[in-house]
Amino acid sequence: MAIGALCALWSTMIQLGLDPRMDALALNVFAATLCSYTLHRLLALEDLKRLEVHSTAIMKWSVRWKWALRILFLCGLLGSIISFFALNSKVQITLCLTGLITVFYSYPILPSATGKRRLRDIGIAKIFLIALIWAVATVYLPILQYQLKQGINEGILILQRFCFMIAITIPFDIRDLNYDKEEGLSTLPSLLGIKKARLLGLALLVFVTGLCLIRFSMLQAISGSQLIAFVITYLVTAILIQGTNQNRSDHFFIGAIDGTLVLMFVLLLFA
To answer: What is d(CA 137, CA 11) in angstroms, rounded to the nearest whole number?
Structure first.
């Protein structure tokens, strides 16, 4: 996921007329994503009930290599702290806010009638929180860091990334459907059913394609080759979403679904 976040950030930089590079912001986005996702995985390992439900290859790997996850978490935390002080004040304030949301998402801090719970336990809000954090980290932060104008194109780009992240998060909710039902969590697949949830993901891809057309034809913010890069990415993503079911391996979700972020960057890089 850290590589995916970095590719998403670089995709944004290309669209904003910047050269993708490994600077303080890129290091922070990469390290913070690495830190947050390894933290989430480590906390999940403490939940024996979750382990029983998720007896998948990735969970078994996580149990075996728990020490490696701890090292990755510390590396991500260290990289986040070091790079934080090289960013401007507006980015630092935004990172503090998103950092709090990320911690509350994975760690049970919020009070409830049955004890403490995480933000991700608030059912359907989970998918929107994930999309919001990704949109802020990979689109809004570079706008702040590089002091770019904030106009219609930038607003559409944020919305485009937000909707795309919802679309590629739906397959993960389909994967976790049984566990979420046992936990009493309301997610899009549990509320709509798997088939309609997939259709929603496809509808979101059609919507973001429309946004790309607006940015190309009306705003002239992206080139024709960049438009083609987006269309190819969204077509591949649509095929993957349509093929999503609970029996898919972890390689499908981690490699193929998350890989769409890498695909987008590579296509834009050569567009």
So the answer is: 12
The parent domain of residue 208 ranges over 2-269
> Of how many residues is the chain composed?
271
Q: Could you report the per-residue pLDDT of 242-264, keeping only the tens digit for each?
A: 999 888 887 788 889 999 999 99
For residue 221, the 8-state DSSP code is: -
pLDDT digits (tens, 9 = 90+) for 30-43: 999 999 888 877 77
Cα–Cα distance for residue pair 91/24, rounded to 1 Å: 11
Distance (Å, whole) CA 230 – CA 267: 8
CATH code for position 229: 1.10.600
Domain count, the chain: 1
Residues 200 and 245: their CA atoms lie apart, in Å, by 15
Q: What is this structure's pTM?
A: 0.91
